[in-house]
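Submission sheet (multi-component)
Chains listed below:
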Amino acid sequence: MHFRETQVIYLQIADYVCEKILLGQWPPGERIPSVRDLGVELEVNPNTVIRTYDFLQQRAIIFTKRGIGYFAADDAVTQIKSYRRDQFFATELPVFFRTLYLLNIDLTEIEQRYDAFVKAEFN
Amino acid sequence: MHFRETQVIYLQIADYVCEKILLGQWPPGERIPSVRDLGVELEVNPNTVIRTYDFLQQRAIIFTKRGIGYFAADDAVTQIKSYRRDQFFATELPVFFRTLYLLNIDLTEIEQRYDAFVKAEFN
Amino acid sequence: MHFRETQVIYLQIADYVCEKILLGQWPPGERIPSVRDLGVELEVNPNTVIRTYDFLQQRAIIFTKRGIGYFAADDAVTQIKSYRRDQFFATELPVFFRTLYLLNIDLTEIEQRYDAFVKAEFN
Amino acid sequence: MHFRETQVIYLQIADYVCEKILLGQWPPGERIPSVRDLGVELEVNPNTVIRTYDFLQQRAIIFTKRGIGYFAADDAVTQIKSYRRDQFFATELPVFFRTLYLLNIDLTEIEQRYDAFVKAEFN
DNA sequence: GTGGTCTAGACCACC
DNA sequence: GTGGTCTAGACCACA
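Outcome: structure written.
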């Protein structure tokens, strides 16, 4: 049996980087760790980090200055949210809908529970 | 770095068993593989399979006849759905709600997309 | 820790003998196995069997003919029931009452369940 | 001959734990011995204690805080009584009824003796 | 053969 | 340190 596989590493590192930025530990506009440093820190091959940084750069979450390093974008937080929204609508939501259908759960029940959730969490 | 953890084995096996039953490959009321056989098939210790079977028996999805073996319950499919609903409301839904909140996504947008999803999938 | 101890052996053998008589496998008035034979059969010291037979003879469930052997009494079944009644009232019933008290269970609930039990078992 | 079997160890330990709680030696809401400590005290493998604690946790008699230990539930006493009532009705009462039937004892006699018992014990 | 209990010991995550 | 998972292997009762 192949037990459930974990996500590919470079995407997990992408999440890790986004988390750092969202938490303000790596502030927008400022330099983030070098490919080599982050590779050492996460005990991962530098090439894997390069792939992560490439991925994030394509999404305008970070950018590079040649010979200097990588930087968090000024609007990194916005970009991360946008990226996550895309991911959410593209992959998570269909799975969610499929589950609703399979378990015969009505959307109205979700709405009711959401109201309760909002009241409980953010009051 | 600890990369994303995978679920514990005995619960993955529980999902595996439920899947078999849901697909009708292990019909309700009939005998399912012995702990030893399934252990060999999944390359897992029989004790781990026992733990899975114990877990499923407590949820009335399977039952045991001593000296004979384990059997899928007559209403196993119903019980599995009930179990999954519990799991859904207890763990998946809160994560979903948190995502909605963090990404500033409105429930009304979910509803619209759900209507589209239903039309696309089941018409 | 001393885990729960089992009853002394000679009394367990007494139960074994009574069972045989009640089931008609050792008919009233007829000879029952010798001390030695039963000792071999149960893998127990003959002295232990002697203690059992002594115990049962005092309760008129079996009797001995010197030089011949032990016999089940003609009214062995009656005597066994009488013996068990004594045991029941002396030891089991107080424990039962104590449990009722500790668990706040009312006798009327017992009566109701008894009616249900009788209907289910002996109809 | 197989002499009367003793209850499995992990359930005996469960009784032992319940007793401690009922007697107030392990007060509700407070930490109870670790699986390793209790294992040493009772000369039993820690895994067996884990099994006991698992069993009791499923019945909401104790609960766990990861990395800290197990605790007696606030309403542990209530839960224990509830658990014992279930056990009483499921296993002890049928045996009791069967005995009544086999010995031709009438329920009215039980009632009379119960009145006497109550007067003797709690007056 | 089946399930079920128990031991011994390794390794992990959490605090 | 704590609980929790998993393995390996022994032994038992039941059928």
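Remark: The radius of gyration of chain D is 19 Å.
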